[in-house]
Design goal:
This protein has 313 residues and is an alpha+beta fold. Helices cover 34% and strands 33% of the residues. The chain has two domains: 6-113, Sandwich (Immunoglobulin-like), CATH 2.60.40; 121-148 and 162-174 and 228-308, no CATH class. The protein has helices spanning 9-21, 54-57, 115-121, 148-152, 172-178, 181-199, 202-218, 224-234, 237-240, 289-308; strands at 28-35, 40-48, 59-63, 69-75, 86-88, 91-95, 104-112, 122-125, 131-132, 137-145, 158-170, 244-246, 251-256, 265-275, 280-287.
């Protein structure tokens, strides 16, 4: 069966080549599996190799199409076949005479997949503007296999594992409204001074550093590094994961943020699995910003209390 699908030309072409070359063995593609995160592909196909004279005079040739490499061959009883395929002239050669007594064999092939193909396979939606309430920010997340009908017509079973969607969870507002005024003023002055330094504007830099010096005096015996330690503590993956949740079929995979000052957002990566039975998934990533804000306030209140108990130099 030859199929036209411009979006999936590399995948479909590899399939067509395999089917045509393996026609004498009645190939039946059982499963195509992708790992979105690791950019790998696994193809499982069944071939028919009747016992008889032909086994002694013919080898099985499987084209090395799409960089696929044979990783396993099993018989109809799922026993692993010890015959090692050899790559000769862009073809995988299996000695038919070395195959055990079985009419059907399952060939597993693996390949690395390009970023381009992965993006053609799946559509990802993750709007940056959340639905805001006093308690939470909710980010709508959606992922779906593109042209599922086309791919279903080629493969009996299609799985795409670890489909990753990245959501930028805004935290700058929460920090700004939850830190003590003198610390907020210092952080704002520090950010502006750093920006002026990066732009190499001497006059502006002088003004910003003078403002920074004044705001530094207002935080008293509190050391700047103590402030940044608190900020980094609050946005570490282990800590921040407490304040985000997403419903099935998604799950939180990883959390990351800038380690300089207060970042505008924290990147939360969520994963899901898509297949022919579940070609699309949608959900809401919930950031419990009120709880996060309360946590920010407590951390800085504790820090300020410790600072007040420090002896003045």
């Amino acid at each position: 069966m030859s199929i036209d699908g411009s979006k999936f030309s590399d995948i479909i072409t590899s399939y067509d080549i395999l089917v045509k070359k393996l026609a004498p063995y009645k190939p039946d593609v059982k499963k195509l599996q992708f790992d979105y995160l690791n950019k790998t592909s696994i193809l499982k196909l069944r071939i028919t190799v009747p016992e008889g004279l032909k086994r002694n005079i013919r080898n099985i040739e499987i084209p090395a199409s799409g960089n696929y490499k044979i990783t396993e061959i099993t018989d109809s009883m799922f026993n692993t076949v010890n015959s090692v395929p050899q790559l000769i002239d862009s073809k995988w050669i299996i000695k038919a005479k070395d195959l055990p007594k079985s009419e059907y064999f399952l060939v597993t092939m693996e390949s690395k997949v390009s970023e381009e193909i992965i993006k053609k396979l799946v559509r990802i939606d993750a709007p940056e503007d959340p639905n805001r309430t006093d308690e939470t920010d909710e980010y709508w997340v959606h992922s779906a296999i593109r042209d599922i009908a086309l791919l279903e017509s080629v493969y009996q079973e299609l799985n795409i594992d670890n489909v990753q969607t990245s959501v930028k969870v805004g935290i700058e507002r929460t920090f700004a409204s939850s830190t003590p005024p003198e610390i907020s003023e210092y952080l704002q002055a520090k950010a502006e001074a750093d920006r002026a330094l990066s732009l190499r504007d001497r006059e502006d830099l002088f003004r910003k550093w003078r403002t920074l010096k004044g705001s530094t005096k207002k935080i008293g015996t509190l050391q700047p590094y103590e402030i940044f330690q608190i900020i980094q503590k609050l946005i570490t993956p282990t800590k921040f994961k407490i304040f985000v949740h997403i419903n099935d079929p998604f799950r939180v995979h990883s959390v990351s943020a800038s380690n300089i000052g207060i970042p505008e957002s924290v990147k939360v990566n969520v994963l899901t699995e898509l297949n022919t039975k579940l070609p699309a998934a949608k959900g809401n990533l919930v950031f419990r910003k009120r709880e996060f804000s309360d946590n920010v306030k407590k951390e800085f209140e504790d820090l300020m209390d410790k600072t007040k108990k420090k002896p003045k130099k």
